[in-house]
Amino acid sequence: MRKFFTNVGSMDQRKATKYIGRGFLVAILFIAIMGVSIAINAGRTDWSTWQYNRIEDQYDWGDITLAQRNEQRDAVDFWVEVMHMQNVIISPICRFGMNIALAFVFVGLIGLAFTGTGDEKTRRLLLLVAGILLFFMVFTMFFDGFGFTVTMT
Predict the structure, then answer these.
(1) How far, in Å, are 99, 138, 145, 146 from residue 11 at the CA level?
(2) Which of 20, 35, 85, 93 could lock 108 by a disulfide, CB 3.0 to 4.6 Å apart?
(3) Best CA proximity match to 110, nearest among 10, 39, 38, 42
(4) Predicted model pTM
(5) Helix 13-61 to helix 66-114 angle, to the nearest 10 degrees?
(6) What is the pLDDT of residues 20-59, one digit of tens each?
C-alpha cells in the first residue's frame, strides 16, 4: 500500500492521463448499462399491460383457450419479475463498478496534481476536483435513491 501511494506521488503526466481517461471510459460504460437496466425496469408495466391486453383480445376472439390464456398470463408475470430482478441485481454491480472507475479517475487527478506540471493554481484545482470526486464516491456508496433534476423553464 505504501508503494502505491509513493507511485501516485511520482506518477508521470502520461500515466495519470491514462488513469483519468480509462476511468471515465469505464464509468460511462457502467452508467450506460445501468441506464438500460433502469429503462427495462421502468418499461415493464407498460409491456405487461400491452401483453395482458393482447392475451385478452386473443381469448375474446376465440384464438386461444382459457388454459392457454392462463398459461400466457403466468408467463407474462414471470417475465415482469425477471425485468424487475435484473434491475435489483445489475444496479448495485454498476454502482460498485462506477465507484471503482471513479477511483481510477481520483488516482489520476492526484497523480497529475503531484507531478509538478503546471502552476500552483492548477494543482489546487486538481486537488479540489479530486476531493469533490472522492466526496461524491463516498456519498453514493452509503446513500441510495438520490438524484439531480434539471428543469428548463
Answers:
(1) 21, 24, 36, 35
(2) 20
(3) 10
(4) 0.74
(5) 170
(6) 999 999 999 999 999 999 999 999 999 999 999 999 999 9
> How far apart are alpha carbons 13 and 151 in whole angstroms?
38
Yes or no: say if 97 and 12 are a contact pair by the CB < 8 Å rule: no
Structural domain includes residue 3:
no
**Rounded CA gap, 48 and 56, in Å?**
12
Containing structural domain, residue 125 = 15-141
What CA–CA distance (Å, rounded) separates 112 from 120? Answer: 12
Residues 30 and 97 sit within 8 Å (Cβ to Cβ): yes
The tally of domains found in the chain comes to: 1
Q: How far is CA 62 from CA 58, 70, 129, in A?
A: 6, 14, 65
